[in-house]
Write a structure and sequence with these properties.
Elements: H1 4-26, H2 28-38, H3 44-56, E1 60-61, H4 62-69, H5 73-85, E2 89-93, E3 101-105, H6 107-127, H7 133-163, E4 168-170, E5 176-178
Antiparallel strand pairs: 1-3, 2-3, 4-5
C-alpha cells in the first residue's frame, strides 16, 4: 500500500504536468495558430463561451452561462455582444420570462466551433502518435474526474467568497483571511479550466 509521501509525489508531478499543459494550450500564439488553421478569429474566452453553448444543446440564459463559466454575468453579456456582432450567437426571447433573453449558437457559430475542434483534434492526434488508445482513454477518464472535482472545489470557494463580508475572503473551511493577502479576492480569473 503506498504511503502519503508517494501520493504527494504523484500529485506534485501531476501538478507540474498540468501546469505545463495549461501553459501550452493557453499561449496566445498557439491559440492564434489553431484559430488560423480553422480559418477563424475568436478570443480564447469567446471559444469557451461558444463551447458552453454547444454543450448546453439548447438556448441558455446569460446568468446560467456565467455560472457555468464561473465569471460575472456582465462579462458574458459583453462577450455575447461581440459574438452576436460576428453572427456566431443569437439572442431570442425567453418563453418563461419576457424580461430575459436566451442565447444560442447560430449555424455559423456551430460551424466555426466545429472547424476549431477539428484543428485541435488534428494537433492532438499528431501529439499522441504512438501512444496506445487505452492509455489515451484512461487519461480522459482521470482528467474528467479531476476537472469535475476541481470545478466543484472552485465553485465552493467562490460561494464562500461571495458570502464573506466586504474586504475579507472566507476559505472553504469557513475561516477568513484579509483580502490584501496573496490569496485575497480578485487574485485570479474565475474561469473554468
Amino acid at each position: 500500500m503506498p504511503d502519503a509521501t508517494d501520493n504527494r509525489t504523484a500529485t506534485s508531478e501531476l501538478e507540474a504536468v498540468l501546469a505545463s499543459l495549461a501553459y501550452l494550450l493557453t499561449r496566445s500564439q498557439e491559440h492564434e495558430r489553431q484559430t488560423a488553421r480553422a480559418g477563424i478569429t475568436a478570443a480564447r474566452s469567446d471559444v469557451y463561451l461558444l463551447r458552453a453553448l454547444a454543450e448546453a444543446e439548447e438556448a441558455s440564459r446569460v446568468g446560467d452561462l456565467a455560472a457555468r463559466l464561473m465569471v460575472k454575468p456582465s462579462h458574458v453579456t459583453r462577450q455575447i455582444d461581440r459574438l452576436q456582432g460576428q453572427q456566431l450567437v443569437e439572442r431570442t426571447p425567453d418563453t418563461l420570462d419576457r424580461r430575459a433573453r436566451q442565447v444560442a449558437l447560430t449555424a455559423e457559430g456551430r460551424a466555426m466551433l466545429n472547424r476549431l475542434k477539428q484543428a485541435n483534434i488534428t494537433g492532438l492526434t499528431n501529439a499522441l502518435d504512438g501512444i496506445p488508445e487505452p492509455d489515451v482513454a484512461a487519461t480522459v477518464s482521470v482528467l474528467r474526474h479531476l476537472v469535475d472535482r476541481y470545478v466543484r472545489q472552485v465553485r465552493i470557494t467562490m460561494l464562500s467568497e461571495d458570502a464573506a463580508p466586504p474586504g475579507r475572503t472566507a476559505d472553504v473551511a469557513g475561516g477568513a483571511e484579509d483580502a490584501g493577502g496573496a490569496e485575497g479576492a480578485g487574485s485570479g480569473p474565475r474561469q473554468c479550466v
